[in-house]
Amino acid sequence: MTATSGLGTARPASPELLRSVFRRHAAGVAVITARGHRGPVGFTATSLASVSAEPPMLSFGIGTGSSSWPAIATGGHVGVHVLGEHQRELAETFARSGADRFGPATAWREGPKGVPVLDDVPAWMVCEVVARVPAGDHRIVIAEVLLGDPTGHGRPLLYHQGRFNGLRD
């Protein structure tokens, strides 16, 4: 280990180092949905990023061990939903393994391209998957935006220090 004045003590790269650093990084919260062979699937993502304006493209990461991965791996379209601070419970439901994500507590409808679209979100998009890039135990999915709606209400939901939080002024 190397000590550098004013920088603390550097640690070698490890999964725990990465997790510890990213716990300090506030991230927006999204739910990614898709149509699976046995019904709708979805998961909470904090890795959503804009990739390109022309054409409009975005990316997100998904673990290959995720229950949603088989549908994302083979499906052509995904729904991307930006969550508001009023949707902590929804974020927790889609983050919890084994949860009934599309049960009675989740308001949704079948949207364009058969993609599940969540109700009452600040913004949503339906996208066509154009690439799945291997990245360790995850895949980075790149998708082109086909259509969406940015006019919902609510302030953004954030993920920080292992918890879902609202934005503070």
Automatic annotation (TrEMBL):
Record has Cell division as a keyword: no
SMART domains linked: Flavin_Reduct
Enzyme class, UniProt record, top EC level: oxidoreductase
Domain Flavin reductase like: 22-166
Coiled-coil regions, chain positions: none
GO MF terms held by the record: oxidoreductase activity
Keyword Oxidoreductase: yes
The enzyme's E.C. designation: 1.-.-.-
Keywords on record: Oxidoreductase
PANTHER family assigned to the protein according to its UniProt record, in alphabetical order: FLAVIN REDUCTASE (PTHR30466), FMN REDUCTASE (NADH) RUTF (PTHR30466:SF1)
Name used for this protein in its record: Flavin reductase family protein
Source organism (scientific name): Streptomyces atrovirens
